[in-house]
Fold this sequence. Notes:
Layout: H1 2-12, E1 16-21, E2 26-29, H2 31-37, H3 57-71, E3 81-86, E4 92-104, E5 107-116, H4 118-130
Antiparallel strand pairs: 1-2, 1-5, 3-4, 4-5
The structure holds protoporphyrin IX containing FE (HEM).
Amino acid sequence: GQAHKLQAILESALDAIITIDDQGLITTVNPAAARLFGYAAESFIGRNVHFLMPEPYHSAHDGYIANYRNTGARKIIGIGREVTGRRSDGSTFPMHLAVSEFEMDGRLHFTGIIHDLSAQKATEQALRQAQ
Ligand code: HEM
């Protein structure tokens, strides 16, 4: 059925896909998210998404979401941005973040799609140094 199909799509995706509720608490992650950030998939659920980012984003992220809910001003939704993520070992990496929103059970939720840019950045740097 449809649910099975959706499950297969999420599980085979190369990019990390994370959904959060309107408070920033994680509701689902796919296996690529677990691989990228270095945590078991179950251990994301219910945690604030800000545990996946370094300062100053970490302290500011609840405010970013609140600001969007209060003003409707979109800084990333529908636009995307290159930001910095933080893995379980504390190391940081460049990533492209795309965010979209959806409503479920009368509440706002968000989907984040994360593309790891570290390999691309390393290649660009190597090319620059070779010139
Ligand atoms: C907004 C950083 C992950 C949902 C933002 C903003 C930044 C940011 C810089 C915009 C602040 C502004 O200019 O006002 C990050 C970083 C992440 C991350 C570094 C690294 C893991 C996520 C994920 C989701 C998400 C995975 C959703 C599942 C949102 C929402 C907003 C937001 C809903 C407010 C709407 C908007 O500004 O358009 N985030 N974010 N973020 N982020 Fe994140």
